[in-house]
Please model this.
Amino acid sequence: MAPRFAFRASKFRNVECKRLSTFDQLQVSPDGTVLAATSSSFAFAHQMDNGGAVQVKPLAQTGKEAPNTPPLVRAHPTGRITALSFSPFHEDLLLSAGDANAAVKLWKLPGSEPMTDDLVTPLASFQETQGIVAGIVPHPSADSVVATYSRPGSLKIYDLEAEKLSFEVAVEGSAVMSSAAWNWDGSAMVVATQDQAVRVLDPRVEQLSAPVIEAAHTGKRHLSVVWCGRTQHFVTCGSDRMQERELKLWDPRQLAKCVHRERLDAGSVGQLFPLYDADLDLLYVLGKGDRSSRLFEVDLARAPYVHALDHSVLGSMTLAATLLSKATCDTNDCEIARVLNLSASGSSVAGSCEVVSYRVPRKEATHTFQSDLYPDTLANAAAMTSSEWQQGRNAEPKLQAVQPTAKVAEDMSGSVFGRTSAPSGWGTPASSAGATTNGWQTSGWGQSLSSTASSNAPSKTASDVKTGWASSTRKWNEPEPTAQSAPPPPAQWNSTDTTASTAPPAPSSKSTETPEEIPAPVPAATVSDVSSPAGPTSITDVVELSDKAQRLGAKYGHKLKYLQGKEAPRNDVFHFGDKRVAFSTQASPVIAANATFWAAPIAGAGGPVLVEKLGATGKAQHRAAPVINGQKAEVSALAFNPFNDHVLATGSADSTIQLWSLKSDTSNGAGELTQTLSGHTKGLRSLQFNPTAADVLCSSSHDLSLRFWDIEAGQEKLRLDGKLDDITWNMAFSPDGALLATASRAKIVRVFDPRQSEQALVAMGCGYESNKPQFVTWADSSRLLTVGVNTRNETQVSFWDSRNLLEPLDVPVMVEPAASAASTTTPIPLYDASSHLLFLIGTGSRHIWSYEVDPVAATVQANLPFMIAGTDTIGGVALLPKTTCNIRDVELARLLVATPNVVQRVSFSLPRAEKLKEFFQDDVFGLVPKQEPSVTAAQWFMGETGAPVYESLRPDGTIDAQWQHDPLLTHFLACNLQVWWHCPRSPKTRHLCDPRRWISRRARGKKRRKSDRRLLSSLGSVLLRLSRLCIPRTILEPIHAHLKL
Model:
């Protein structure tokens, strides 16, 4: 008896579907389901000329389309486009069909450069006699052979090179063709008609074809057909008599009954688009009007022959779909396919096109090319000419090897965390099939270990090697790196001119926006392209990852991956008691804190604010809690003076700002009111102190103004009016206090130099399209970091050059999807610049996400997520100063989290071995600003700017971790210790130099300090290898004096 449940092993059983960046605000014509693509661009019907124009858009230009009209192919001005197709062997040749007279036109596109002017004159034109051309199907192996079918009409075969009609085949009766496809070698075609009949014919035999399948499907919906590659089978998609959509697998040798029938659904009525991957025998099915994509595997060795693998939701409704070539896939991520999903009603008013990626997750893919996922694929070369095919010859398509994607170079010299990504143009065609070098073996990790292996000779980084990799460390005003030149385009047929005629350029044809680019696969360079560097160019030259780390896909440099959060003990929690925190509904952190106090607005008459010492625990006393209340309406903004912990500024809905002097002993009251600042005409939105200038406060209000106050003098010194068109959600000073960045409710990010009253606006750019708030902060002295939500409710992090806000520095990084789903608004960002650590806190949830930020590479890496215990949700959060952290225990950050009932401390630490905690972890602890101003308020308002004063967090008695990791310093230290102890070096007493003998003895001695004994124990393994080195005393004595051991 056969088992009830049979297990089927498939390498695609864990396939994942992921949506990549999209092309938004496209002017897609909703009347035609036409979409065609090559390895570098795609074409669709534009709304111009009532759907008779074609827009060709590079795959690298994702993001929002410019509002003005782009250069178009004015293909069919008298009617809409009904069919589109690129030549499989010439990516610069485009075929279109349309017009009222059913014309088929051939267009010559610019080879390597994007279009700058409209194309109006085709390279060739063919006139149909009747009907509407419903499809264009190029021959899979013969050059210049194209089949077209019309409704109504016949099947026609054209020779593009000779510009003539070669064959014409009619169908019996009044049947109307709805779909057609070539078989694998192009010897026959399978044709489907609207009466659900299917015919298999050789178009070179010009005879009337009788149906070989009378009714492939019993329903009346549109019938689509696709050939299944080398399997010698084909698939039809239609519906049954109950109007349930289905697909069937057929064997042309036995057409009496289908091989397999797969039911899809019963609720949708749209046409199905079957897309077949002949390399892996995978079938992708999308439906017009649907919002989902299905994936099937065709395996004729095991019944039921068609196996469902994945059913994923798409971001927009499908109008047309096409499968991209393998050259666009990233082999480093085991990406097996990319599908374009065109929609006429996407995230924008007009339309959009999203990129759907399918990947097979494998751990070993980080260092090994998965050849079973990438067999030979179709080449961009014809196997025969059109005349050879017309004479009766058949040939299978030419194949070429899939070139592994070159690994991204990771340069450790420009970042604390040692990771920079290399953006490149997406969809670069694969190199020639003759290249035999494996890109996995030639690229390595691509890191220059300048912080690990010291060398006097300058090391040659990956960007210096001629491998075609792009460099991500270019400046904001430098041009994009140019890609390798493509082969010259083929000569035009029967034409002496090298370019197609173009129309005069329209004034608005050029775009004023710079399209964003997404990281994409780059062809691996061959051995002849790479010169041997003089020094180590790869991290594997110095530090070799273990086999386990390679299997798990470990990457050197992501140091904060295992950051762990921990809540304070129950006895260290402060309870509000009968006090109720007035949580804001405007995406505000609510709570403010410094190293001494914390403050939070509470419910009550006026604007009461509860102020407690940072270490306060227990429960708030009834009618005895330290509360300040001097305003007439609720408090909407709080800010502590960064140079005086006892000064608190509060902003209220009554349009006033109050300054309070807090008491050290809060038992007799929280503090006294010192000043009241008036000037705003509406309620306050946010307050921000200058990080370098003493007593400089900035305020934003609902009256659309920014005001700068000298709180020592109690006066308003600067005011920016008319610069904002909507309410400012939040703002942030640059590290040196010279510039101010703001994010408004109108989705606009601005950078101001407030002391330049006439030209205060430095840069301005659009943020996120969602109506949810967005946040802005400074990643470093020149780069901004913004957090927002796109139209798909996905939280994104973007990096910007503060001098140019037209486009982000790189593609916005989509963070954990749960960060958006768990919060009803945008997660609040808290950024620790010293450790490059970003926290995202979802208000109304219990989640805290942390990310490691690399501002140079404009990337973030997710750390371990954290969720607070209990059922209370987060209402407010504040990042405590770095000086409150336990540096010896590698505590990187402390957050003060407010819920409706309690205020608790959450610490985030990096797990390190106990023996490593003796060292100061300077790789994760950077310099922090000292609590002292650089300039006074008067100096700042006069135009002076002072750099912040920094200090190290290194505790007394600890040793820098670089001595442990740097082989050169460790070598000097070991030799210095030997001289210090005067170890004998004569051959007779050489055994006394063995550290296993004298290190253990000396480590137990009482004459040495405890820190010395710990240091000797940790260096025992190094001394074991270096004990017999003879170093001159003249070299070691200066080192000994420098180290002061």
